[in-house]
Inverse folding.
């Protein structure tokens, strides 16, 4: 029995049980990870699973059920159970559930990889992590850590409207971190980002990071931070490096433009949004330099796909244009409630989880400057990069972030190293203060975006570049 | 097959079969086999409507092999002979080329599992209609306010077998409810929350929880912005759960202690003498950990003095001690006490939605408020992230209701704060001015059927470092 036939059996069972709409996702997933600490391998895991998840609409109620078998009987059981749950949902219901129209797509998609990451020998992968962490230890790291992660996902989507789509997605990424322990505190430097860099790419992504070549520098910087002066407190000009800009976009733009949050569907957990749909198309989000796109078509970025998990073909869309809020991340049901005519941003962690509105690639378009020009144009300020802590309120408005590293900027040049750099702000005020933006765009990958109940971990991409902000409060400390 | 395990093979049979298959393929190797069946169901509602209602029934088999100084782990949901043979083949191939693992601690010896509590069958077998009924009661009790939240039940059964002769099985059931009521006002929406995670589904009282959430929401309208600075605080049990979660993850974790990154120092009176912390996985039916070691009730802090930290076999070997039964399946996080609680003899669980005046969660919170001359009552600590594990300094915000306390009474609602606070300093000797006389059982997350479960009282603390407010 093919995977498509399993999905079709599940959908038919849900329809037979009274559903007016049903869809099913069959997935086969492989996950490999390895971590090293202080020159030794700490963990190696190779995991696989497969199953079918069915979503059914009965009257005004939705239901979802998942089972880990790929045969006709299991598929039919999953479909019937999804419909049964949907009936129970109607006990607490008051509106009809609808979906915006979608063309019944029949299609296929996969991403290109240069080096299949699963096929790289475990010995070579281990040597890389052992070598990098040993080098960090030699350069003074008290704790040296390195890791990689690889995902391979094959999925088959069928809906009662006629969708029939298969996709094959390969993702990989890696990173290293050095921790220096001082008198009552720790300092950490990681490379290339807090949790590493990830993409819909093969092992070439990891190769190009040159973890070994950066290990000594990372450890040296961690030790240097222990004796660096603390970030001063006050209001100043802030220049953010590219990795921290990716986090800034993710937290204060990406989540805020999720339509399910705007509609209150996440009110009790992830939260809502400060954005009001009545101001879509007119609300000033940031300065004229701020252009944010929702674009799942970027080759190699972590949030890329051919079709979302409702079968909507990937397409680029503006979220913020010349500083004005113009678009949201939407699914077919949330778009229907909001009166919008587009979806395309619904994803599920796996076959056992309900698809929901998630970020794809949400990022900046390039600006007119370079980081070198931004520093040179700044008389007095602070440069910060690499996230260390991230806290933002449940409306995605009021935030405070900590970074691993800071530098004074004096008279157009980077000056002293600063430890414990932090900054705070209110989303639109912060983005409206952005007066310089670099053209040096990188598609940063976030492999750990949590949302939903039961919890789901999403993979998102964030094209980001260094930028400058005026009048920012920095140096908040315990 | 996966979903039919309970009808054809027991989990222990399945683990034994996997172990035998692996031993035939790799004679002499050290091998662990695990089986976990998770029946997780969650009914989620928003805008007073059930909008996401899900269930799964998934059995996963796991294998960890150590041979010739190398270690690898694998798992699969394919439970037939071919599926298990494929898992064994894949794992054996991997271990032959895996990097050396000089820190391998060896297998858990044969031992009786901890004396875990029996599960409540009604919780394990709760239906979608049962969960929807609790949601219905919550919505109806909220006095017409919009509501949102979830009702969760899960049923785990599993087994473990290793080549050192250990063979154990277990079963656990959990339930939980988390809901908010939302009161609109001219400047926004005020949220009030109520949560409860009893051991029996029958104790989930949707009506009582809905009424309490609505009372809190109604008391939170038209908040004002209090200047951010250090204030005396009463943290409700829901907020204290965040302190506890950070303490066990970054403080009492044997891995962070071994690394020198932890704020915890065994034998020192680091905390106020009013603080006692115990981890009790046996109460929820978990008698062994993912390495097959017996779980136990473990005293971590005794009247302010740290007396133990959590270990799996690897961190225990590094520290020259034995596992405390806190292995969580490998990965980078280390051993964490995910069933911890602040405890003292005779402290009972708070009845959900107990009658109390004003926005306080329960009578024990109200009693602590009565002892505050000027301070802040906090419902939730939200989006907290660790700046430095050594100091356990944390950034975060307040959520779901904050109020000013004056002369022992709640006088007015406040806008949310940002804060940067060392959790260790917040509990240091002399810093704890009062501990609630009841505890609330609360679920930690909903990522899996093995959700953390906390047991927390309210705390009256001398100082909390609020660093910002709604205006910036």
């Amino acid at each position: 029995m093919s995977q498509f036939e399993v999905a079709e059996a599940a959908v038919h069972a849900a329809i037979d049980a009274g559903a007016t709409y049903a869809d099913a996702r069959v997935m086969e997933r492989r996950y490999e990870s390895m971590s090293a600490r202080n020159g030794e391998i700490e963990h190696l895991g190779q995991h696989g699973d497969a199953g079918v998840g069915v979503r059914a609409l009965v009257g005004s109620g939705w239901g979802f059920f998942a089972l880990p078998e790929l045969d006709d009987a299991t598929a039919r059981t999953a479909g019937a159970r999804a419909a049964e749950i949907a009936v129970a949902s109607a006990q607490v219901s008051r509106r009809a559930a609808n979906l915006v129209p979608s063309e019944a797509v029949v299609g296929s998609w996969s991403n290109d990889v240069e080096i299949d990451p699963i096929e790289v020998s475990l010995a070579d992968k281990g040597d890389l992590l052992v070598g990098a962490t040993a080098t960090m230890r030699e350069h003074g790291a008290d704790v040296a850590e390195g890791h990689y992660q690889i995902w391979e996902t094959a999925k088959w989507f069928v809906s009662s409207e006629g969708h029939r789509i298969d996709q094959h997605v390969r993702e990989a990424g890696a990173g290293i971190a050095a921790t220096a322990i001082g008198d009552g505190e720790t300092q950490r430097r990681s490379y290339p980002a807090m949790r590493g860099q990830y993409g819909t790419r093969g092992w070439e992504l990891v190769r190009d990071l040159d973890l070994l070549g950066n290990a000594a520098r990372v450890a040296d910087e961690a030790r240097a931070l222990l004796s660096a002066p603390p970030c001063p407190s006050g209001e100043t000009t802030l220049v953010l490096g590219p990795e921290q800009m990716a986090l800034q976009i993710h937290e204060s733009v990406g989540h805020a433009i999720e339509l399910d949050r705007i509609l209150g569907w996440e009110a009790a957990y992830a939260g809502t949004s400060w954005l009001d749909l009545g101001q879509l198309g007119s609300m000033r989000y940031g300065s004229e330099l701020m252009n944010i796109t929702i674009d799942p078509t970027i080759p190699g970025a972590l949030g890329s796909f051919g079709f979302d998990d409702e079968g909507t073909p990937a397409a680029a869309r503006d979220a913020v244009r010349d500083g004005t809020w113009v678009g949201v991340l939407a699914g077919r049901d949330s778009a229907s409630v909001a009166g919008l005519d587009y979806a395309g941003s619904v994803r599920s962690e796996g076959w056992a989880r309900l698809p929901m509105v998630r970020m794809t690639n949400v990022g900046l378009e390039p600006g007119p400057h370079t980081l070198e020009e931004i520093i040179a144009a700044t008389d007095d300020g602070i440069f910060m990069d690499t996230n260390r802590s991230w806290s933002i309120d449940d409306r995605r408005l009021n935030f405070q972030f900590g970074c691993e590293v800071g530098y004074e900027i004096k008279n157009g040049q980077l000056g002293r190293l600063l430890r414990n750099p932090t900054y705070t702000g209110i989303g639109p005020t912060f983005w409206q203060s952005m007066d310089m933006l670099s053209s040096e765009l990188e598609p940063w990958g976030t492999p750990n975006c949590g949302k939903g109940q039961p919890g789901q971990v999403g993979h998102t991409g964030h094209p980001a570049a260094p930028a400058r902000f005026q009048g920012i409060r920095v140096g908040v400390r315990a | 097959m996966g979903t039919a395990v309970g009808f054809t093979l027991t989990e222990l049979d399945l683990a034994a079969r996997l172990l035998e298959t692996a031993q035939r393929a790799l004679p002499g190797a050290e091998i662990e086999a695990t089986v976990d069946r998770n029946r997780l169901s969650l009914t989620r509602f928003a805008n007073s409507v059930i909008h996401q209602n899900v269930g799964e029934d998934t059995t996963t088999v796991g294998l960890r092999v150590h041979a010739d100084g190398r270690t690898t782990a694998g798992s699969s949901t394919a439970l037939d002979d071919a599926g298990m043979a494929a898992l064994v083949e894949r794992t054996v191939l991997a271990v032959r080329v895996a990097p050396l693992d000089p820190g391998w601690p060896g297998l858990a010896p044969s031992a009786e599992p901890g004396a875990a509590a029996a599960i409540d069958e009604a919780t394990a077998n709760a239906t979608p209609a049962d969960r929807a009924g609790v949601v219905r009661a919550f919505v109806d009790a909220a006095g017409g306010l919009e509501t949102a939240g979830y009702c969760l039940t899960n049923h785990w059964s599993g087994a473990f077998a290793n080549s050192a002769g250990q063979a154990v099985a277990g079963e656990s059931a959990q339930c939980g409810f988390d809901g908010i009521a939302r009161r609109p006002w001219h400047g926004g929406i005020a949220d009030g929350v109520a949560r409860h995670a009893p051991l029996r589904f029958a104790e989930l009282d949707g009506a009582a929880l809905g009424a309490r959430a609505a009372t809190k929401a109604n008391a939170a309208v038209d908040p004002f912005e209090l200047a951010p600075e250090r204030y005396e605080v009463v943290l409700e049990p829901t907020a204290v759960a965040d302190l506890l979660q950070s303490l066990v993850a970054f403080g009492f974790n044997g891995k962070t202690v071994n690394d020198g990154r932890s704020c915890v120092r065994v034998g020192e009176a680091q905390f106020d003498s009013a603080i006692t912390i115990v981890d009790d996985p046996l109460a929820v039916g978990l008698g062994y950990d993912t390495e097959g070691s017996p779980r136990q009730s473990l005293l971590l802090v005794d009247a302010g003095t740290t007396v133990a930290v959590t270990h799996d076999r690897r961190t225990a070997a590094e520290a020259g001690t034995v596992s405390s039964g806190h292995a969580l399946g490998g990965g980078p996080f280390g051993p964490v006490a995910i069933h911890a609680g602040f405890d003292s003899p005779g402290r009972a669980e708070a009845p959900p939605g107990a009658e109390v005046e004003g926005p306080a969660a329960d009578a024990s919170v109200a009693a602590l408020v009565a002892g505050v001359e000027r301070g802040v009552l906090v419902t939730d600590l939200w989006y907290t992230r660790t700046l430095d594990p050594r100091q356990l300094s944390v950034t975060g915000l307040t959520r779901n209701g904050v109020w000013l306390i004056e002369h022992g009474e709640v006088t007015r609602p406040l806008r949310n704060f940002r804060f940067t606070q060392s959790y260790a300093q917040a509990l240091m000797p002399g810093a704890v001015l009062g501990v609630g006389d009841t505890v609330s059982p609360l679920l930690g997350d909903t990522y899996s059927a093995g959700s953390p479960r906390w047991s927390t009282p309210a705390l009256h603390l001398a100082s909390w470092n609020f660093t910002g407010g709604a205006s910036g």
Notes: Residues 230-468 of chain B form one domain.
